[in-house]
Amino acid sequence: MSVVKQSIGVDVSKDDFYVRILFQFQGSTEVRKHRGVKKFSNTNSGFIKLHEWLKKYTVQDAPMVIAMEATGVYHEALAYFLFEHGYFVSVQLSTKVNAFAKSHNLHNKTDVSDAEIIARLVSERKLVAWRPPTKSIRRLRALTRQYQAITESKTVTQNQLHAMEHSALVDDQVCMRYREIIALFKRQLKQIELEIRQLARQDELLDNVLRLLMTIPGVALKTAAVIAAETGCFQLFDSRAQLVKFSGMDVVERQSGSSVRGRSSISKRGNSRIRRALFMPSLSYVKDDGVFGQLYQRVYQRTMIKKKGLIAVQRKLLVVMYAIVKNGTAYDPRLHQRRCQKEVGKPKLAYRDSIN
User: Fold this and answer.
1) Dihedrals phi, psi of 346, to nearest 5 degrees
2) Exposure string (b/e) for 5-18, b if CB count within 10 Å is 16 or more?
3) The whole model's pTM is what?
4) Which of 217, 329, 315, 213 has the alpha carbon at shortest distance from 274?
5) What DSSP string runs through 197-253?
6) Any residues with CB less than 8 A from the CB of 231 and at least 6 apart, and which?
7) Hey, which residues does 256 pair with through a beta bridge?
8) CA dihedral defined by 205, 272, 197, 201, rounded to 10 degrees?
9) What does the pLDDT look like over 298-344, one tens digit per residue?
């Protein structure tokens, strides 16, 4: 019998990773394992050994899918190596792998069993290929995330300085060091902003995306940079529904029979940095008479919950960003105003369309 699919599961840790191969044959639902689970070191030499091992023990003409669980940053080097060598690579969220294991009533948690579970996931599901971001996007992501980390550290230090200055026993030396640290943070933040601008000038696609995003009122460089970095300049998405789910703004409903009627809410299972970046711009639209301000007022007047109005604006803002980047056109408030006028008589539909 000929092999119709080769499912390879990889469980990655900091120092090593385990690999399991499953074969599926034509005309049979049976899945056969290849020997035991193989262990490799999570280094470049280990990647080369894996490449040679796969060439030796897999069927070259049969479809092959390699899947791994997203484990912080430990899986990235292996994923890039396999992608560069022409393999079909899929990176799965740990929540999806855990849910799959529970659906099969599998409770063991070891490196070997995890590789087995991921391989079975590959054999039963049609997975989406992983597409790595460009070097510019990776650098932009590193810069924006460091900017956020330094900003948070600066806020902590400012609070510590404030507490010391208003305490019963003020220590001038401690206050001086706090001020020096804050000054250092400010210099670093300015340097990061400069590096972001320089990076944009060196990459035509990134520069164009940032310019388009900043045509939206209330969206400045920092917000645009975070959105571009975390979404890969929207190159990783084929629809706005994918983008909304990736950002964790998809709606989760809890309803069953007549006894369970929970509140609908966003899942928050996606990228929290996107939601964080959109929060401040959404606040600026609360008293605005434009498209976003009208959306906020419609949702708030119907639900009397300000947070729902802000979430609706954030979701709408993200979708508008996606649209202008995909179309390559600057933000036109008149265009979006005409579209929203069709929804004025349907506030419920307008709200659902703004958070789904």
Assistant:
1) -130, 70
2) bbbbbbbbeeeebb
3) 0.85
4) 315
5) HHHHHH-HHHHHHHHHHTTSTT--HHHHHHHHHHHTTTTT-SSHHHHHHHTT-SEE-
6) 237, 243, 246, 274
7) 260
8) -10
9) 999 998 889 999 999 999 999 999 999 999 999 988 776 666 555 54
